[in-house]
Amino acid sequence: MESKVAGLPEQAPALSLRAISSHRMLPVLNEAQVLYVLAEIAAHPTRQQGRHPLNLCLVLDRSTSMQGARLQRVKEATQYIIDSLDERDVFSVVTFGDRADVLIPAERGLDKTMAKARVSTIHTTGGTEILKGLSAGLAQVERWRAPGMVSHLILLTDGRTYGGEHECLAQAELARQRQVGISTMGIGQDWNDKLLDEIASHSGGTSTYVDAA
After folding, report:
1. Band of pLDDT at residue 45, cut at 50, 70 and 90
2. Nearest to 153 by CA among 139, 137, 142
3. Which residue in 106, 129, 158, 177 has the fewest CB atoms around it within 10 Å?
4. Which residue has the higher pLDDT, 8 or 127?
5. Rounded distance, CA 208 to CA 187, Å?
6. CB–CB of 120/82 below 8 Å?
7. In 3D, which of 175, 192, 176, 166 has the Cα closest to residue 137?
8. How confident is the model at residue 12 (pLDDT cuts 50, 70, 90)?
């Protein structure tokens, strides 16, 4: 079905649906019967494609256990994301060990060269306190959160947090209420998979295990 709005050109529907059933008719029987239906859903080939602008914050563990190849790969991945942004997107980076620092404040129209230079300066120090990084990251997302934007936070860590687990889950629940998703990534063997899974599920995000840098 196509909707028509006065003054606006008609557009093809975004999706097409085709259903094929295994039987055109079923007899009336006093027993259970099985009917198979194959549903094919496809995007309309001529409809313009696009995406909502992003409001994305990366929260990166820079504790001492991240030193070496792990941190280097994280830097490279972050720089790749920076190159993929367009001028409508809002981007920020928070790093944390036993304290959190806003490396790149949330802003639109990012100076990509400057941002990648800042990422290259990340160095390891301290322990792992996820709550501090998570709180600082959500504060950056909140600055630009608005209808029509996809607001999301990605948390990457390789360790177990020192306290604050219940507060982390409370932050994740508040993020869900504000329609901010949190995706968590655990790298290596020593991270708290239960906590990261719960943070992601409380916010409506996903949890991913990364076995190597």
Report:
1. confident
2. 137
3. 177
4. 127
5. 9
6. no
7. 175
8. low
How would you class 185 by CB atoms within 10 Å of its CB: exposed for 0-12, middle for 13-18, buried for 19 or more? buried
Q: Give the C-alpha separation, 80 to 151, whole Å.
A: 19
Give the DSSP letter of residue 17: E
Answer yes or no: is pLDDT of 213 > 80: no
Instruction: Tell me the three state secondary structure of residue 121.
Output: coil
Of the candidates 11, 40, 15, 16, the one whose C-alpha atom is nearest the C-alpha of residue 2 is: 11
Both tokens of 15, joined, read: 């999706």
Q: What are phi and psi of 58, to 5 degrees?
A: -100, 125
Grouping H, G, I as helix, E, B as strand and the rest as coil, residue 115 is: helix
- 121-157, pLDDT tens digit by residue? 999 999 999 999 999 999 999 999 999 999 999 999 9
Is the pLDDT assigned to residue 58 strictly greater than 80? yes
> In angstroms, rounded to a whole number, what is the distance separating the alpha carbons of residues 104 and 82?
11
Q: How far is residue 110's CA from residue 103's CA, in Å, rounded to a whole number? A: 13
Are the C-beta atoms of 117 and 88 separated by less than 8 Å? no
- What would the two tokens of residue 103 be? 């490396």
What is residue 16's predicted lDDT score, i.e. its pLDDT?
84
Question: What angle, rounded to 10 degrees, do the helices at 165-177 and 130-144 form?
Answer: 20
Residue 126 in tokens:
């301290």
**Cα separation, 140 vs 131, whole angstroms:** 14
